[in-house]
Write a structure and sequence with these properties.
Blueprint lengths: L2 H19 L4 E6 L17 E5 L8 E6 L8 H8 L12 E3 L18 E5 L24 H14 L7 E7 L1 H15 L6 E7 L15 H12 L7 H4 L16
Parallel strand pairs: 3-5, 3-6, 6-7
Antiparallel strand pairs: 1-2, 1-4, 2-5
């Protein structure tokens, strides 16, 4: 390849990277300070947060709420290990974020949602936004309050206009995708009866089967998540009503 061709390729690469980098503006994080009073806090006790870019034009009454993923912590030990990271504390998160994909603001790249109200809820509880344990161990200082975080953030968004939504989507990826499944019915119930509501789970469908080693550990793993975070009472009643309380861990699995 001669120098001229190499230069053209480098210019093309720089151009593409520039487009990707500038697809959306840097969106500041909104800290929900009022959530602290209701105990809706991250693993370390810090307030929850989200990034919000307001809609415009025909999308002014349309809302896309995306929940961040990041795995789970199924035990006190594993939750302690993530407590002082961005996965367990809003204090450790980047304070601005560029939106892209379905959250992007460029019509050419995101024609369906570019002018909607677009939100990314940050993930800092380790339970797919389902935990709710009142007591806090003074030794570990861990707060298991994922369900309260979800409710506090949604309440904040409702107050900012989402209660008037015409179209709304609750989405998430991985642990956030599972959260989208678990909170879908509740999300719809908080919006106008006339609103068109959809839920999208991206990589949040976890099959109940054997793993690569031939074992079947996923059920016991999610069972520990439920136990550690006190998630049973936050899970969909449509699921928990069909199983005994001691088997509630299975409601965190999509059984096939």
């Amino acid at each position: 390849m001669d120098g001229s061709s190499l230069g053209k390729w480098l210019c093309l690469i720089v151009y593409i990277l520039t487009l990707l980098r500038t697809e959306g503006a840097s969106i500041p994080m909104t800290i929900v300070q009022a959530a602290v009073a209701r105990g809706a806090v991250c693993l370390d006790g810090s307030p929850p947060g989200y990034h919000f870019e307001k809609g415009s034009g025909s999308g002014i009454n349309n809302w896309l709420v995306h929940m961040e993923g990041g795995g789970w912590c199924e035990s006190v030990e594993s939750c302690v290990s993530r407590r002082d990271t961005y996965k367990g504390s809003s204090l450790k998160m980047e304070k601005t974020m560029g939106f892209s994909g379905i959250l992007g603001s460029k019509q050419a790249a995101n024609p369906d949602f570019y002018n909607w109200n677009r939100i990314k809820i940050r993930y800092c509880d380790g339970s797919s936004f389902t935990g709710d344990v009142e007591a806090v161990d003074p030794k570990t200082k861990l707060y298991f309050r994922g369900e309260r975080i979800w409710q506090a953030v949604i309440d904040d968004l409702l107050a900012k206009g989402m209660r008037n939504a015409r179209n709304a989507i609750l989405s998430g990826c991985s642990a956030g995708g599972l959260a989208a499944i678990l909170h879908c019915d509740k999300f719809q119930s908080l919006l106008p009866a006339s609103a068109r509501v959809k839920c999208v789970s991206d990589a949040g469908y976890f099959i109940h089967g054997t793993d690569i080693s031939g074992g079947s550990r996923i059920e016991s793993f999610f069972g520990q998540v439920v136990k550690t975070h006190g998630s049973a009472k936050s899970l969909p009643a449509s699921c928990t009503s069909k199983t005994r309380p001691e088997l509630v861990r299975k409601t965190l699995l999509i059984l096939t």
